[in-house]
Amino acid sequence: xxxxxxxxxxxxxxxxxxxxxxxxxxxxxxxLFTRAKPLLQEIAAAIVEGDDDVVDELTARALAExxxxxxxxDDGLIGGMGIVGIKFRxxxxxxxxxxxxxxxxxxxxxxxxxxxxxxxxEKQGTVIxxxxxxxxxxxxxxxxxxxxxxxxFDVIDLGVDVAEDTFIxxxxxxxxxxxxxxxxxxxxxxxxxxxxxxxxxxxIRDDVLIxxxxxxxxxxxxxxxxxxxxxxxxxxxxxxxxxxxxxx
Length: 248
Prior knowledge:
By secondary structure, the chain is of the alpha/beta class. It has 2 domains: 4-118, Methyltransferase, Methionine Synthase (B12-binding Domains), Chain A, domain 1; 125-247, Rossmann fold, CATH 3.40.50.280. The chain is built from 11 helices and 5 strands; from the N terminus they run H-H-H-H-H-H-E-H-E-H-E-H-E-H-E-H. The protein has helices at residues 10-19, 23-35, 38-48, 52-64, 69-89, 95-118, 139-150, 164-174, 190-201, 219-225, 234-247, and strands at residues 125-131, 153-157, 178-182, 209-213, 229-231. Strand 4 (209-213), helix 10 (219-225) and strand 5 form a beta-alpha-beta unit. The model has no long low-confidence stretch (mean pLDDT 95).
């Protein structure tokens, strides 16, 4: 098993050591960055630091050196943004810092997306995403959407303060097989359960797999509501979406 000292990039080592607390997340990122090429580690570190100019330059250099676009995206851009998502979840960084990091990721994706589109990379599927009724927070949802799109999913973003009927209409209109709901307030978390109940009442619960997430949401809460999946952060949101599509 890879050790933290196997990660070459000092910034990434420091980030993992200082900000990651859950053993499974430490293991995940140590393994990721141990195998990642040094240049891709630099990209990930620049994402964490929110330096869009450096990400822009390094992504162009990586492509010029013949590194595959999908590898740059997975090991560099998404890897770095995954650390940002965890830091946001644990209140180590806040909205301004996250927006800066997101801008840096977009600078890299501007190089990657045209290549992936031209190569005809198979789409993973369509995911509907929205923040539940009564909740106006969207930065966590937007992080998830960015990661999902970067991983090949089409995403329908319903925005914030989304009513149960709006979720239902979106599923019926699009035929999407996976729906993601976010909440950042303990007072709005019950609206996740109400939305699931609305799908049951409309007799279409079996037509869609539902995943939930947000800072106060837990696996236990997800299970109690009858959701099909739970993501603790933006990176795990992608993993859960892939699992649900495989099961659909």
